[in-house]
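Researcher: Next sequence.
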Amino acid sequence: MKTTKPKAIRAQFKSCYLAALDIIAPSNDPRYYLNGYSVEPCKEGGVIITVTDGHRMASIRDETGYANQAFIIPKHKDLIALAKRKAPRGKYNENVERIFINGDMIYAMRGWWECADGVNLQRPNSKHVNAVTMACAWPFKPVDGTFPDWRRLYRVIEDAEPRGDAGNFCINPKYVGDFEKVAKLLGAEIGALAMKSTGPHSSILINLTSPESKLIGIIMPMSAHDAAIPSWMDINLTKKEDDK
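Model: Next structure:
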């Protein structure tokens, strides 16, 4: 019986997206398939990169990216360090701009013109990499596992009808701060932070409204008391009857 050889992974996307999402991606989760970055083709073009640690989730679309299949990139300390590093002033061409995956190799690249045969990486059929624009390269093996159905989690929030007192919800403030850090690494200025909750115990949809960020996420709720003004503030909250 003939066995079908798995299709070699070919993908490329902006390195800053991976560096930013690394803030949320776990490193030592017992669910090994979460210790990485989910990459998959986007139906509207480009790629979608998603990470989650079970407490929050973030997804970002790179409209200029490409992937020929869905896969999980394992956590990679050296790759992330290169993606985050900023070149000295006047040497911006030394910045790592894109991640390029070709079969069993992953490359940190400095620009769009990495292919030795002169074919731009927007043309994914090129198989050669130019060492002049390659910052570094490593052997690559995707995580052997299935990433959670992240679309379902977003769909649950979007389709849910508001119930109970949807105005009360509790979340870990660190997680909100982490989304701000993600936005800064993306170079986005946060004008506002939009949140949506369908109930006191539902997940919170979070969206950075800056158009540059192209980022959306979810923060799981915590159990706590509802927000309320304490009695020691000595504020009369009872409604007064109209004077007769």
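Model: The domain at 10-139 is CATH 3.10.150.10 (DNA Polymerase III; Chain A, domain 2). The mean pLDDT is 78.
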